[in-house]
Amino acid sequence: MINTAAKHIRRAPYQALTAVLIMTLTFFVATLLIVLAYSTSTLLKHYETSPQVIAYLKSNATTEQITTLQRSLESDTRVKKVSFVTREQAMEIYKQATAGNPLLSQYISPNVFPASLEFSIKNLNFAQGLIDEVTKELAIDEVAFTASLGSSQNLPKVVERLTRISNYIRIGGAASLSFLLLSSLLVLLVIIGMRISSRRDEIEILQLIGATPGFIRWPFILEGLFYSTAGALLGWILGFLAVLYASPALSSFFADIPFLPTDVPALLALLGIILGGELLLAIFLGAIGSLVAMKRYLKI
Amino acid sequence: MIKFENVSKKYGSNFAIEDVSFEIPEGEFVFLTGHSGAGKTTLIRLLLRDINPSCGQVLIEGRDIKTLKSREIPAYRRKLGVIFQDFKLLLDRTVYENVKLATEIDGRTTSEEEEKIKKALEGVDMLEKSNLFPRQLSGGEVQRAVIARVLVQEPKIILADEPTGNLDPVTARQIVGLLEDAVKEDKTTVLMATHNADIVDHLKHRVIHLESGKVASDDSKGKYITRFKT
């Protein structure tokens, strides 16, 4: 049966090429969309879990005021990971941030930097209310939201924008992918249908000499599976290459935000999971395409 | 082995065959003759279970084949060997692959089967040309390849619908000779629909003659050949 399917493919190479190319395009786009969805999810998680709020302390804030505020934040269910950053630690952070240009930090003393309480918020929607509350504290000089997309002044916009981007990618991606999958399914259906039509005589002969329906059908099913899995593999390889190609530029754009796994094994694991999922989807698509074509064109 | 009991087949209001009854025992060679449209092909298609009779029964080894379930039909057809005027070989397979197909569909792929294939090809004098494709062969050679495929199936019944229709007289006699060998050696039952009066006349087998879908004569010694010729 495998030999027969291979023979079918060799006999009409242009139809086979068309099917594989369409599948390749679909799975290439699918790979990119999945990576993009993963990245936006990572990005969103990063903003949700990194210390988003920095409450700068007044220079005359007492230790008691600071301790009370820190305890109050630690007991707040909306807050996680509260930490006190001293002037010296703040300077260290600045030095690390400007490591590429040591002159910027050469003549600066820790006194320039205010001490602060840094904390992250469990849900970005709590941010505005919490910031308003902390701002009113006597020990607090100024409160900043560290999301690189804005400051505390436009916090609602930051949250809204991130959520909107994430939704666009998910909904838009799902819609585009559904459209491409449907197109691929139709192409597969038409090509397998053409194959069946062009082999009517052969099917008739096989029936006459007593071939079972399975014996007649399997080569067509295998053909559909070949197109879809070959397309998935090629699409994934192209997607993988595109991600590798774009990674340096994206890394420099997002700076230290790990939008993709930073170590090679984790990146390979992510792409491996994508490949596995795509192959399963391809098998499903190939089987469905072949079966529908046979139901439509192969009456045995 | 084969029994037709008052079998009729209607297409619309026209009878393709009407009230046909006959019986063919195991190991008999029978010619089915008649003009075009007399009902020969309908009769073969009924035996193949390609169509069902409008009324009456077609019995093979005592079983009414109309009662066969869809899933039983392939196994039933593997008991039959079918030969057609237009050969029906797969054009993209060699002679050997075409003959091998008969064992593949049955799931038989042992070395013993390979030997059978070679023996069958040798029997029809096609072993040397077994690697050629049907398009590279003459009509007689293609029909011999079909017979090799049929012989590998080891059928109980061979149904031949005008197998010599596209062949010259000498080749036609060789082909029928191969079918006669199958009857003698394996006790295979052969029902051969033909227009070829010379062959029918020469071989003196039983002749069932159809006219307008009815059995006009059924003669065990080909006595009505003269009538058939007219």
Automatic annotation (TrEMBL), chain A:
Species name: Candidatus Blackburnbacteria bacterium RIFCSPHIGHO2_01_FULL_43_15b
FtsX extracellular domain span: 52-143
Listed Pfam families: FtsX, FtsX_ECD
Similarity section: Belongs to the ABC-4 integral membrane protein family. FtsX subfamily.
Name of this protein: Cell division protein FtsX
Broad class of where this protein is predominantly found: membrane
Keywords carried by this UniProt record: Cell cycle, Cell division, Cell membrane, Membrane, Transmembrane, Transmembrane helix
Topology term for the membrane: Multi-pass membrane protein
UniProtKB/TrEMBL annotation, chain B:
Domain ABC transporter, first and last residues per copy: 2-229
Single GO molecular function: ATP hydrolysis activity
InterPro entries: AAA+_ATPase, ABC_transporter-like_ATP-bd, ABC_transpr_LolD-like, P-loop_NTPase
Transmembrane segments: none
Entry's Gene Ontology cellular component terms: plasma membrane
Ranges in coiled-coil conformation: none
Record key words, sorted: ATP-binding, Nucleotide-binding
Highest taxon of source: Bacteria
Alphabetical list of PANTHER family matching this protein: CELL DIVISION ATP-BINDING PROTEIN FTSE, IMPORT ATP-BINDING PROTEIN
Membership in a protein family: Belongs to the ABC transporter superfamily.
Protein name, per record: ABC transporter domain-containing protein
